[in-house]
Structures are given as C-alpha cells and as structure tokens.
C-alpha cells in the first residue's frame, strides 16, 4: 500500500480512534470491538505499554485490511521504530520538523499536531500530509476549524480533542478530512465492565455520522 492509498483510506474511513490503554491486551480488546463496528483506521499511541510490539502484531494480523498507525510520536527515533514495526502513518500531538522530514524520506504518511494558524502552515509547508488540530475542542471546535479552512482550504486538517457523536459531523462539514476520537469511542470503562458491544455500536454510529456528513 503506497502513501496515496493510505491517505485515501484515512479520508474514506473518516474516523480515527486514538487508542490509549493500560496494557497491550486491553488495547487489543478495545481495537477488536472498534473494528467490528466498521472502523478501518486505528491509531495506537505510544502511551500503551509495548506499543511498538503491538503495532507489529496488529499489522501482521490485519495486513492491508485495517490501517494501523502510531500516535504520540514525538521524535524521529520513535517514528523509525514504529515504521519498522509496520505503522502506515505517524501522528504527533505537537510539531516536530525532524519527524516530518524523517517520515517524508521514508515515504510514510505523517500527521503532526498544530493549533495556531502559524503552526498549521509551518507543518504543511514542512511536508505534512495531514495536520492534526489539537486540542480542537478547547479552541472552539468546528467553528475554529472552519476559521482555519477559510484561508487554508488546501490544507488537510484532522481535529482531535472535543470530538464526540454530537460534534463529529460538524467537524466534517467544517472541512475536516477525518476526525480523531478519543475516550468517547475508546471506552475502556465499558470494556472493563464487559460491554464491548456498546463500543462496537458507537463505532458504527461514528462511521455513519461521518459518512453522511461527507455527503
């Protein structure tokens, strides 16, 4: 799968769960429930114990059927390890120009984090494939994203932080290429209570909301 294919799959799915968990087994369980709901793009954050090994395992298990990427990647060294494990995209909550350069050289989709207009343009000009707007909710949500898209219609934005079933469609209609969803979808409490089915159902709802908003 080449870079263009990965980018298309991210946009086509439109929903990117941000997976944080107390263990690799817990992460696998919540990922399984989310995938059952039709989500085809998964971000495994570096806060998951053994995250790089988990990426390797998931990549081997799902191959090109499900996109497995790495999140909370703060430097090129971590990006290198994740790419070697099979990560198809690299995401950071912040802007590190060396990481963007490394991913470009490796021909891997990279999504640095940015918030202000200057940061967004800096990330894009440095070679970002998407720019993660984080924390989007704290800056006004979909209204803020729409304000960014007005002068920068060519920049592909993916908001994270403050995305819920109530706001997801608004973000897409405001111009988001996709949305990053945290605890509202990656519901570890529901998983621990034996209610994985509710996670699967919520995943289905997100996929439908985003699909309808894309129109």
Percent of residues in β-strands:
5-15%
Main sheet: which strands, in order across?
3-2-1-9
Q: What's the N-to-C terminus distance?
A: 26 Å
Q: Main beta sheet: strand number and arrangement?
A: 4 strands, parallel
- Rg to the nearest angstrom? 16 Å
Would you write up a description of this structure?
- The protein has 215 residues and is of the alpha/beta class.
- Helices cover 48% and strands 15% of the residues.
- The strands form three sheets. A four-stranded parallel sheet has the order 3-2-1-9, sandwiched between helices. A three-stranded parallel sheet has the order 6-7-8, covered by helices on one side.
- The longest helix has 19 residues, at 196-214.
- The protein starts with a helix and ends with a helix.
- The model has no long low-confidence stretch (mean pLDDT 97).
